[in-house]
Specification:
The chain is mainly alpha-helical and about 260 residues long. The protein has a single domain, classed as Rhodopsin 7-helix transmembrane proteins (Rhopdopsin 7-helix transmembrane proteins, Up-down Bundle), CATH 1.20.1070.10. About 75% of the residues lie in helices and about 5% in strands. It is built from nine helices and two strands. This is Bacteriorhodopsin. InterPro entries: Arc/bac/fun_rhodopsins, Rhodopsin_retinal_BS. One of its GO terms (molecular function) is photoreceptor activity. Belongs to the archaeal/bacterial/fungal opsin family.
C-alpha cells in the first residue's frame, strides 16, 4: 500500500460525492438500525432469543464503526495495481476496511442463523471459521500488488471457503431448522443471505479490484453498500421481528448448540 497521509485520503473521499455518499448512507442506516433493534428487543426475555438478539445487534454496531473508519481514511488507502491488471500501474483507492467489517459482522449473522436453526457446535464452528477465512483471503486478494495472478489465486481460495458456508446453509442447517421448528423463517433468511452474499464476489470480479469492467471506485463502493444494507439491516430486521413474536418456538427448539446430539438425523 502506498504511503499517503490519513488526511489526504480523507480529503480524496470527501471530494468524491459518489464515494462519500455510499459510506454516509450506511452510517445513517446503521445508526437507525441500532436504535430500532434496541426498541424491538426491549421485551425479549428468553435466553436463546436474547442471544440471537445480541449476535444480530452486533451487525449494525460493527458496521457503523467500520463505515466511520472508512470515511476517516483510517481503513482506506491507495494501492498501485500490478502489471496484467486492466488498470495495471494506476493508483486506486482501496477500501480494505470493508473486509475487516465483514470479518467481524458476517460471523454474527451466521451465529444468529445457527442459533435459529439449532445446529450443533461443531458445524457452527466450522462454518464460522470458513467464513472468517473467506474474508481474510478476500482481503489478501484486494491488497496483493505484487502479482495479478496471485490476486486471483487468493480470490479463488476465498470462493472455496465461501462454498463451505453455502453448503452448510443450503443442506445441513436447513435440516436442523426443520427439526427445530424454525424452517419457515430460516428458509427466508437463508435465501436472502445466499443471494446477496453471492453478489460480493461477483462485484469484486467486475469492479476495480478484479476485471475493472466497472472502473469507478464510487460505483463499486455503492454496490457493496447496497448489498450491506440488504444483507445486514434488512436481514436483521426480519430475524428480530420474528424472534420477538416467536420466543416460545425459539425456547423450545432443539438443543444442538447447547451441546446435545444434533437434531438432523
Amino acid at each position: 500500500m502506498l504511503q499517503m497521509s490519513q488526511s489526504d485520503v480523507y480529503s480524496q473521499i470527501q471530494n468524491d460525492a459518489l464515494l462519500s455518499s455510499s459510506l454516509w448512507v450506511n452510517v445513517a442506516l446503521a445508526g437507525l438500525s441500532i436504535l430500532l433493534f434496541l426498541y424491538m428487543g426491549r421485551q425479549v426475555t428468553e435466553p436463546r432469543a436474547k442471544l440471537i438478539y445480541a449476535a444480530t445487534l452486533f451487525v449494525p454496531l460493527v458496521s457503523i464503526s467500520s463505515y466511520l473508519a472508512l470515511l476517516s481514511g483510517l481503513t482506506t488507502g491507495v494501492i498501485q495495481l500490478p502489471a496484467g491488471h486492466p488498470l495495471g500501474g494506476e493508483e486506486v483507492l482501496s477500501q480494505w476496511g470493508r473486509y475487516l467489517t465483514w470479518t467481524l459482522s458476517t460471523p454474527m449473522i451466521l451465529l444468529a442463523l445457527g442459533l435459529l436453526a439449532d445446529v450443533d457446535r461443531g458445524s457452527l464452528f466450522t462454518v464460522i471459521a470458513a467464513d472468517v477465512a473467506m474474508c481474510v483471503t478476500g482481503l489478501a486478494a484486494a491488497l496483493t500488488t505484487s502479482s495479478y495472478l496471485l490476486r486471483w489465486a487468493f480470490y479463488g481460495v476465498s470462493c472455496a471457503f465461501f462454498l463451505v458456508v453455502l453448503g452448510a446453509l443450503l443442506r445441513e442447517w436447513s435440516v436442523s431448522a426443520r427439526a427445530a421448528g424454525t424452517a419457515e423463517i430460516f428458509d427466508t433468511l437463508r435465501g436472502l443471505t445466499v443471494v446477496l452474499w453471492l453478489g460480493y464476489p461477483i462485484l469484486w470480479a467486475l469492479g476495480v479490484e478484479g476485471l475493472a469492467i466497472v472502473e469507478s471506485v464510487g460505483v463499486t463502493s455503492w454496490g457493496y453498500s447496497a448489498l450491506d444494507v440488504l444483507a445486514k439491516y434488512l436481514f436483521a430486521f426480519l430475524l428480530l421481528r420474528w424472534v420477538a413474536a416467536n420466543e416460545r418456538t425459539v425456547a423450545t427448539s432443539g438443543t444442538g448448540v447447547s451441546g446435545a446430539t444434533p437434531s438432523d438425523d
